[in-house]
């Protein structure tokens, strides 16, 4: 399903925050435009939960792993706020809300209707925001993950299947087939 804007005028960050929480739908702010989409399907949610659990179990204590948090990418007059599937940030006592500066890894899961947004738009937004690592999980034919690292302002990396061992931002082993 495609995402559709539902607010006729660009919103400020203050207006966005004043909306409150609505768990019946997923909403993000893209250059000041409110974007609303349906909640992800069960397969997406199951993968998200299992992957987050694996990362929590393997992450060193200086990191915090969060599922679907709000991350402010830009706080300009036309702000962008995303809700990635999973975020890894450096933990600290005063961490209350996430900005791109806090995030070391963002993970998105491709769902029907989000392919272009995840593979193109968000890839550019996360790179522009300076987030060091971006992982894309795709379940189209079989579970696979693209492990991307920011280099000279753009992401570079490769697709992987099966059991994947990563070394950044921390060492972890992920069995993609067991996550679905």
Number of domains: 1
Structural class: alpha+beta
Percentage of helical residues?
10-25%
Order of helices and strands: EHEEHEEEEEEHEEEEEH
CATH homologous superfamily identity: tt1808, chain A
Cα radius of gyration in angstroms: 16 Å
* Spatial order of the strands forming the largest sheet: 4-7-9-10-11-12
Count of beta strands? 14
What is the overall silhouette?
A: globular
- The CATH class designation is Alpha Beta
**Average pLDDT for all residues:** 90
Which residue ranges are poorly predicted, with pLDDT under 50 across at least 5 consecutive positions? 1-5
Tally of contiguous helical segments: 4
The CATH topology is given as: tt1808, chain A
Query: Architecture, CATH level 2?
Result: Alpha-Beta Complex
Question: Strand portion, in percent?
Answer: 35-45%
How many strands, what sense, and barrel or not for the largest sheet? 6 strands, mixed
Separation, N- and C-terminal Cα atoms: 21 Å
